[in-house]
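Milestone M4 deliverable, item 7.
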Amino acid sequence: MPADWTVFALPDDLARERYTALLAALEELSTRGPMSSLEEITAQVRSVGFHNPLPESELRETLDQLAKWGFAEPFRDYTAPVRNYQGLIVRREAWALTRKGRGVVAAVRPTEDLAGLQQSMQSKAAEAHLLGQLVQPLSDPVWRAELSYPFHVAGLARHYRTAHQVDVRKESLLKLGESLARSLGVIALAIMIQRSGEFSPALANPFIRGAGATFGAWTTLLSDFLRGGDVPELPVFESMRGPDGALSILQEIKNHRNASGHAFGVRPAHERDAEVKRLKPIVVAALESMPWLARLHWDLIEHCGYIGPGYTLQGRRLRGSHPEWEPLDEKYHEQLAPHRIYLRGPLLTASIDLTPVASVGICDVCDQRELFLINRAKVSGGRVIQLTLRSDKDHEVVHDLP
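Output delivered:
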């Protein structure tokens, strides 16, 4: 639909009026016969209110453009040449609206005058332009990630999309890849904790050393998790396996990050630009390999009440790159503990409790509600005693474990 109407959003008022007049003339002439000659079209264009000069050459050019758009079609008789007043050989031809053209005109009827028809078509064009803007993101993997992927991924997708400087675009792509590994790793870690019944020092090992979990730590965790067998809690997770699976793509992005981080010198601008061009298809491939991420909801449950034969949930949901949490109020078949964040959605056999590796709280730094994911762990006496979680703004919160 947008392509049918945006041709009438032309900036040139005279050109837009000319196209509108021709469509109106062809529509009116269609009631008299299946096709119309150039002479008939010229006369009818005046009768619908277009009085500007319209030479035959310009008329042909305009009709040819309508034909390219699929609104009109010519019928030419190449067997009967006739000589025009300039002595040139031309062909008899006639024109008619196509089905698409008739549909465009019919959509703005009843409108009797050219001005009204033009106004109606311009209105349709404006609507189509808006619709096109709304639909366009659906064809772009980065846009789709920004709109519907987990927040820590979606926010970085937006950061990349709005970045202009080559260094910022490169860093955004690398961080976008790492955010995919981190979000998936948090889910895998939560499943392993759920299976074992505790957050053991062995599970906390990737988070003990240094400044926290690295890109490599997350890909290693995911690799170990997938080697452990099937994932009945989230069967689609298993699609990450294999040489063309998401995990292999994430490892390739990690290798790009390591190579860049360990470089001895500073590359010139044209080399950095070329690196971004090589890196983007890999990150896009990672996003496209996991469309199911859009069907997983990260929900903060604030209240769960029994209503028989199920429960009513009240809380907040974080959707896409927007930092504001949306209200959540729905019926559910499963009892969930309040003040915890759960992974929920149609792809799950049951909700996954992301506590303690993810939490939601009012940040002391920015005074905003933020989603925090595990970054570091402290082990003492053979057990995990403390976790440091970090938000997308690099704000941190520390939780002592009982």
